[in-house]
Structures are given as structure tokens and as C-alpha cells.
Design goal:
Layout lengths: L3 E6 L6 E6 L9 E6 L5 E5 L22 E3 L13 E9 L8 H7 L2 E9 L6 E2 L3 H10 L9 E2 L4 H5 L2 E6 L17 E6 L7 E2 L8 E7 L3 E2 L8 E7 L13 E5 L16 E5 L16 E5 L16 E5 L16 E5 L16 E5 L16 E5 L17 E5 L16
Length: 417
């Protein structure tokens, strides 16, 4: 496809240049190259959306119009915003200014100099509309965004860095362009004093860990597929897109709006939920989950079945949870605190090594403790009046605090602390 000729007015000075571009509209082209006009005058041409064409700057001589000779310098990237490849790009050359009619104009075209066919392997330039985000890019990689707002993802400093932290301290922010960070592995985005975007449409594809903090009114378009760890703190996500397929860790704390979670991926190993007052239920837990912590989620009325893989289980300040699922056989560390449990607890699995029972107002009898227990702490159990006849021989540390109805302890071994 041969590029079309379009006329653009420069700087309101009345001078015109004929500009050749590839594609079917101004919106499909970004940076084409370096141009030379009459004499030694040179321009760098950016193809903006049509409404920004008159914002270009250039210098020239006289009133004549000139077909411009485009040259492809080493830093030039021929690219389109909507396609991965461009079929052909034709460069026409006119060595002298042409002032006459159509016949003289035709004679001015000496030859068709170059026809380029290319499939793009390098990254395209990305337009960054938010001027504050442009400043952030240039603070971490000077020169990565030019004065017209185009980000070069192949900037050497951006390519070399893998970890980024963005603090948003301005209003009406737009994070379009953040997804173009080329080799980002770790990204933290935080808001200050309620600042934050209404939508984060996309993130860098290369991300492995992501932390979002103090974003009270934002929503997410999609997650990067390679993400393995995801952490929210003081966010306001009303809904979440599906989790990425390789995710192994999720931590959500202090989200005042979120009332439901998408189904968990089978890859998930760790889940931590804390102070999410609107969350009413938790999806089925995946079969490989090893770590589960749920704290201060006051609207939860039930818990899902614990998969057999869980090794660490922490349940605290869940005022509507009165019954618990069966313990997983793999359970090693257990913490129960501030739960209105009704009835006795089931015997602990044989593999359990550490237990903390704290502020369980209805618990009057400790369950059988298993044969591998090493550390036992019992704190503020006002109704506790009965203990097992003996503690396991593996027990090394034991603590009973504020248990007023207890009269004595079982025989303690000499090896205990």
C-alpha cells in the first residue's frame, strides 16, 4: 500500500509542507522519520491524531511547498498504532523547490527512491497522555518520553530496569502508557490523599509481582498473564477481572468496597484476606493452597472447605463464623482468635506443630493436640476449664494466660521451656 499525500499547516505561519504517510488515517501512524526540506532545514515528523497536527513545529524558507524526502535514521521506528506490520512505504524525492502547476510538480519528482517492506520486531512508540506520568517516566529514564508525549519503550534505561514504584500525587490521572514498561518484573503503584485513576486498563506483560496501595476508587481492566504475586492495600475495587493463570500469591487488605472474588486459579499457594468489610463469601479454595489467613472480614458467614494441602491456617476476628470445616491433614501451624465458635473443636492433625488459641469466648475444652505439637499458646480463654490428660512429648514451649477457670496443668516434661 502506497502512502497518501496530505497537507499540514505548520505553526499557523501559512507555510505548508506536503507530508507522505502510510496507513489509512492519521491515527494509524506514530513516528516515521527525519525529513529534509529546502536547503539544510530538517524536521522530525510525528503523526499525531488529526486534531493535533496543527501543534507541530517546523522551520522553513519561502512560501513554496516542497515534497519532503524522508530518510530512515538509525533511531527511527516505522510503526503503526493498530497493526503489527506495514506493507510498503514509498519515499519520493524532489531536489528543488517547485512553484508551478501540476506538470512542473511532476517533473520535480525525479524518482521513487525507496520501497520498504518490514515486519516489526521492535516495540512501537507509545503515546502517554498524562503529563505527570510523562514526568515520572523521564525521572526514572531521562529522555524516554519526548516533548510531544511519545514514550520509547526501547530506551536503554527502561530496558535495563526491572523494578518500579509510582506514587500518584495528582488528580485526574491517566496511567495509559504504564503497560509499555518493557522488562518490568516488580511494580508498586500508590495513591496519595485519595489520588488515583478511575481505571487501570493494562499492566506490563512482563510483570511478576504487583502491589496496589491507597487507590480508593480505581478499577482494573486485566492482569498480566505472567503475574505470580498480587497485593492490594486500601483499595476500592468494586469488581475484579479473572485472576492470571500463574498466580501463586494473593493479599487483599482494607478494601472497603469489594464484596466478591473471582474463582481462584489452580496455581494459588497463598491467600491472605484482611479487613474487607463488604466481602460476604470466599470461592472454593484451590487444591495446592498452603497458606490461608483470614482476618477481620466481618461480613463472612461461612468458610469454604480447607484443601488437604494447607500447612498454615490463621483465622481471626470473624464475628459471624461459629463453625469451622474439617482440619486438613497437612496442617502444621494453626491460629484461632476472636471467633464465636459453638461447640468443641475437632482433634488437631498429627502433623500440627504450633497452635495459638486466643479470645475464643465459648471454648471450654481444648481438643486433643496431636503427637507432633512443639509450641502451644492459650490466651484469654475465659471459659476454658478442661485440658487433655497429658501433653505430647514433643512439646517444648507452653503458655497459658488469662484462663481464670483453669486450676492445674498436666505434668510437664523436663525438656519444656
Amino acid at each position: 500500500m502506497v502512502g497518501l499525500w496530505r497537507k499540514a499547516t505548520w505553526c499557523g505561519a501559512g507555510r505548508c509542507r506536503w507530508v507522505q504517510y502510510a496507513g489509512s488515517s492519521w491515527r494509524e501512524c506514530q513516528l516515521i522519520g527525519t525529513s529534509s526540506g529546502c536547503g539544510s532545514t530538517r524536521y522530525r515528523l510525528y503523526h499525531f491524531p488529526h486534531e493535533l497536527v496543527h501543534g507541530w513545529t517546523a522551520a522553513g524558507k519561502g512560501d513554496a511547498f516542497h515534497p519532503i524526502h524522508f530518510t530512515l535514521a538509525h533511531e527511527t521506528r516505522v510503526c503503526t498504532a493498530s497493526k503489527n506490520a506495514m506493507s510498503m512505504f514509498v519515499v519520493m524525492k524532489a531536489p528543488h523547490p517547485v512553484r508551478g502547476g501540476s506538470s512542473r510538480l511532476l517533473r520535480g519528482f525525479v524518482s521513487a527512491a525507496v520501497i520498504i517492506t518490514t515486519m516489526f520486531a521492535t516495540a512501537q512508540l507509545v503515546f502517554v497522555p498524562d503529563t505527570n506520568l510523562r514526568a515520572w517516566f523521564n525521572s526514572v529514564a531521562p529522555g524516554s518520553v519526548d516533548v510531544l508525549g511519545w514514550l520509547d519503550p526501547m530506551n536503554a534505561l527502561l530496558v535495563a530496569d526491572t523494578s518500579y514504584s509510582l506514587l500518584i500525587d495528582w488528580t485526574n490521572c491517566d496511567l495509559t502508557g504504564i503497560e509499555a514498561l518493557p522488562n518490568a518484573r516488580h511494580l508498586s503503584i500508590g495513591g496519595l490523599d485519595g489520588a488515583g485513576p478511575s481505571m487501570i486498563a493494562a499492566f506490563p506483560d512482563s510483570l511478576r509481582t504487583l502491589r496496589l496501595e491507597d487507590l480508593p476508587a480505581s478499577n482494573i481492566g486485566s492482569w498480566p498473564d505472567r503475574l505470580i504475586e498480587l497485593e492490594f492495600y486500601s483499595t476500592g475495587f468494586s469488581a475484579l477481572p479473572p485472576w492470571p493463570p500463574e498466580l501463586t500469591g494473593i493479599s487483599i487488605e482494607n478494601d472497603m468496597v469489594l464484596d466478591a472474588l473471582p474463582p481462584f486459579p489452580s496455581s494459588l499457594l497463598g491467600l491472605a484476606l484482611r479487613t474487607n468489610p463488604q466481602l460476604t463469601s470466599i470461592p472454593t479454595l484451590p487444591p495446592l493452597l498452603e497458606y490461608l489467613s483470614i482476618k477481620q472480614d466481618t461480613s463472612l458467614t461461612s468458610l469454604p472447605v480447607f484443601p488437604g494441602s494447607i500447612r498454615t491456617l490463621i483465622l481471626e476476628q470473624l464475628p459471624q463464623i461459629s463453625t469451622l470445616p474439617t482440619w486438613p491433614d497437612s496442617l502444621s501451624e494453626l491460629t484461632l482468635g476472636s471467633l464465636p465458635l459453638a461447640g468443641p473443636l475437632l482433634p488437631l492433625p498429627a502433623n500440627t506443630t504450633a497452635v495459638l488459641f486466643q479470645e475464643l469466648p465459648n471454648l471450654s475444652v481444648l481438643p486433643p493436640l496431636g503427637s507432633s505439637l512443639v509450641d502451644l499458646a492459650v490466651v484469654n480463654l475465659a471459659q476454658l476449664s478442661s485440658l487433655p490428660d497429658q501433653f505430647p512429648g514433643t512439646l517444648h514451649s507452653v503458655e497459658f494466660t488469662f484462663c481464670p477457670l483453669l486450676e492445674c496443668l498436666p505434668l510437664l516434661h523436663d525438656s519444656m521451656d
